Amino acid sequence: xxxxxxxxxxxxxxxxxxxxxxxxxxxxxxxxxxxxxxxxxxxxxxxxxxxxxxxxxxxxxxxxxxxxxxxxxxxxxxxxxxxxxxxxxxxxxxxxxxxxxxxxxxxxxxxxxxxxxxxxxxxxxxxxxxxxxxxxxxxxxxxxxxxxxxxxxxxxxxxxxxxxxxxxxxxxxxxxxxxxxxxxxxxxxxxxxxxxxxxxxxxxxxxxxxxxxxxxxxxxxxxxxxxxxxxxxxxxxxxxxxxxxxxxxxxxxxxxxxxxxxxxxxxxxxxxxx
Length: 274
Description:
- There is one protein chain.
- This protein has 2 domains: about 5-105 and about 235-270, D-Maltodextrin-Binding Protein, domain 2; about 110-215, D-Maltodextrin-Binding Protein, domain 2, CATH 3.40.190.10.
- It has helices spanning about 5-25, 50-60, 75-80, 145-150, 160-165, 180-190, 200-210, 245-255, 260-270, and strands at about 30-35, 35-40, 40-45, 65-70, 90-95, 100, 105-115, 135-140, 195-200, 215, 235-240.
- α2 runs antiparallel to α9 and α6 (about 180-190) crosses α7 (about 200-210).
- It is built from 9 helices and 11 strands.
- The chain is α/β, with parallel strands linked by helices.
- β2 and β3 form a beta hairpin.
- It is globular.
- The chain is about 35% helix and about 20% strand.
């Protein structure tokens, strides 16, 4: 009879072999974790700019790109990347501790979106115009904008708007997708004076608006009342599983080699780069 230790060793060996075979089976593929309905980043129809960026990276690695789609971004690392269902996640914050990170492939920031003919000039959360209760500004749930509205005592003024765009549901322990296009449309229709959005999520809808809108990059000078910085500018990286230094190094090389093509995708999208 096998002893428990022998059985455990056998199972470990089999698991190792299966893991190796699974890795070999995907050796010619780059499996990209992507949102199935996260426009303008990605969707199942591959219409997002991150879908396009993945193809550029795949070409640089000489690998076929296969998208592995998730529904809830909160679990994209834990349930997909960490469980070896995919190999890389695009659009990650350089400070994210959950993954092994590549070098940044672009840098951008949050923007104020306004309607050009209203001649609203705001570029900082310190601008006095934002503090007026008559000035309607929309932000997405759980964003730096929400943090700053609390700091300038404007959150209560806009609470009804937040409730409406969230379908009157709580974001506590729930993922509630609010389309960035909703806020851009509300600026265009003058429901809002301005919207604060992450530039990459706003650019496409600003470009496609029927009336002329403008995006103003927000100065990186936002702070909480206790002096803690609230970043408005971010380096954007790709994330791979911790320990996968081989893929990390390969991606770093492709980021350098494909710099022109990467920037072309971002500029076509209309994303302001820092």
